[in-house]
Write a structure and sequence with these properties.
The protein is of the alpha+beta class and 566 residues long.
Length: 566
């Protein structure tokens, strides 16, 4: 009996509601949305799908993609961004793509959205780079596109779309609905986030999507209905994260929240085959068939995963018991633990609460190879027990050399591309760019993950530098050499500027038609030597001898000045 057939039988035994086309929706999972409408319906869904069990790590995403994003009966990656045939397990030429750009929530890598499989897909690296963090939209076909590989189209948006962004990403027709339902999920699951980029969004729990994006996504949702690919992927993710994309389970939900059925109550029995309201003790998370895959771990290190324990109507006088132990097919329980032990318990009242209880499980191997065992949940009044698979693989500690950072390219007043060359012959999961910005005599550093040997920086505003590290199995290489990026490198820096200056003993006199804001003065090395909040026509700026680059908000180009105090 194959795994999918076995899972089907187990779900029936556990009282799951088996619907058409392979949607295996657990009894009671959606009970809280019954009778809700519009904003209350969206918030009820939010509370169901967030929080959820988190996968092990960003590094191990390709391992999950092998189950969620390959063609049936094939090892070919299902890449919704190109039609280039590539085959698992090799991930060469592909990126871990946040289809809902991570920069839109500020790029925080310590929140579940960063590793949520519901919006992460394998993507051709060139298509991923071209789409950047642009919003979804229709490209104006009368203009030359910025990128077009026959599947991914990036270009100028048609009138009324883009939310002020110069470019939009338009997926192929066969995937437009996939991306629409992905975005419906994201703005519902993470409606509690404060978004920093609002091309398609409005901060707040409802509606979260702005008007033009709602119209576009609803249109794509209707034109490209849920496919078997999405249904199968939803089931695989359920087995890892214990949450589902409700807009795949019930496509009509989008109309009740944003479309022509706003204000109408969503009656669950009208939308799910064989739905029966459940009042018995139910373990919603985790469920039979859940797998916690800790991925690849370097010898001498450990990996942890968080498991959500959440139920309804669990008996208050009967705690849930969680136990790690080997069965007749496994012998690796010694490598897995919960807070240092093999057993723990969760009170029924805590598990019944809306937020549930998080349990941290650790994988700390001491031998090389693949290890697997079981975690069993029982008690709380549930019938029988629920078995969860635990799996990890221990590999030798990697030996990493520093990459070689190379000069930045495509430098403008607001952007540049950081570049580097990896150490020859070393296997790398991804890279970290350590970006340091200098301002007012201080420096701030942030770490940015990158899949390729380059990274587009979109918010360059003066003087900064970068180094690069490679990452394998969570181990960082030494830092590369440092590259400085400064306005002196900007293409088109001229002596005939958007604003001007005249020589003056001990400095310069600024000439400008209107008040300049945030005037910054840089040395050729890129070091910011002075910032002036406001400068008026004929203001004197005192400077020692030397060459300087001066920028100001709202001007087309920086000016290059040569101060000579003779």
């Amino acid at each position: 009996m194959n795994l999918r057939r076995l899972l089907f039988v187990v779900l029936i035994a556990l009282g799951m509601n088996i619907t058409m086309s392979g949607r295996n929706i657990p009894a009671g999972y959606y009970s809280s949305i019954d009778g809700k409408s519009t904003s209350t319906l969206k918030t009820a869904l939010h509370l169901i799908i967030n929080p959820h069990t988190e996968i092990s790590s960003y590094s191990n995403l390709p391992r999950y993609f092998e189950y969620t994003d390959v063609y049936p009966d094939s090892r070919r990656w299902w890449d919704m961004y190109s039609d280039i045939p590539r085959y698992a397990p090799s991930f060469s030429g592909l990126n871990r793509e946040h289809s809902f750009p991570k920069s839109w929530w500020g790029g925080d890598t310590d929140i579940p959205a960063y590793i949520d499989l519901n919006h992460l897909y394998p993507s051709d690296m060139h298509a991923n780079s071209a789409k950047s963090n642009y919003p979804l939209g229709i490209v104006d076909k009368t203009k030359t596109p910025k990128f077009d590989n026959g599947v991914t189209l990036v270009g100028t948006p048609v009138t009324g779309q883009g939310g002020g962004c110069a470019y939009v990403f338009e997926p192929a027709d066969e995937y437009k609905g996939d991306f629409a339902r992905t975005y419906f999920y994201m703005v519902t699951c993470y409606q509690n986030l404060s978004f920093t980029t609002l091309y398609m969004l409005i901060n707040g729990s409802y509606p979260t999507l702005n008007s033009w994006s709602r119209d576009l996504l609803l249109k794509w949702h209707k034109q490209d209905p849920v496919s078997q690919k999405e249904i199968d992927r939803n089931e695989e993710i359920w087995g890892y994260q214990n949450n589902r994309n409700p807009f795949i389970d019930f496509p009509e939900l989008a109309n009740y929240i944003w479309g022509d059925k706003m204000g109408e109550a969503f009656i669950l029995s009208e939308h799910i085959n064989g739905y029966i309201p459940v009042g018995d003790p139910t373990l919603i998370n985790p469920t039979q068939g859940t797998n916690l895959d800790f991925g690849e771990v370097a010898m001498g290190t450990s990996s942890s995963a968080k498991l959500l324990v959440h139920g309804e109507n669990l008996k208050e006088n009967s705690n849930l018991r969680l136990t790690i132990y080997d069965n007749s097919e496994t012998t690796d329980a010694e490598y897995f633990s919960m807070d240092g032990g093999k057993q723990t318990s969760v009170s029924a009242s805590a598990a019944n609460s809306p937020e549930g209880v998080w349990i941290t499980i650790q994988y700390e191997p001491t031998t090389l190879g693949t290890h697997s065992t079981r975690l069993v949940v029982s008690g709380g009044g549930i019938t029988g027990s629920v078995g969860i698979g635990l799996r990890g693989e221990c590999l030798p500690m990697p030996k990493l050399s520093a990459p070689t950072a190379t000069a930045a390219t495509n430098i403008t007043t607001t952007s540049y591309v950081a570049n580097w060359t990896p150490a020859e012959g070393e296997e790398v999961d991804y890279y970290i760019v350590n970006r340091t910005r200098y301002s007012n005599g201080g420096a701030t550093t942030e770490q940015l993950p990158a899949e390729d040997t380059y990274l587009q920086i979109e918010d360059f505003s003066g003087s900064e530098s970068y180094t690069v590290q490679s990452v394998r199995l969570g181990i960082y290489s030494p830092e590369s050499n440092s590259i400085t990026v400064s306005p002196a490198s900007i293409t088109g820096v001229e002596s005939i500027p958007a604003f001007g200056y005249n020589a003056y003993p001990g400095g310069i006199i600024i000439t400008c038609s209107e008040t300049l804001q945030n005037v910054r003065i840089f040395e050729p090395t890129g070091r910011c030597v002075r910032t002036i909040q406001e400068v008026h026509n004929n203001d004197i700026i005192e400077l020692p001898n030397g060459i300087y680059i001066i920028t100001a908000n709202g001007t087309n180009k920086p000016i290059k000045v040569n101060v000579r105090n003779e």
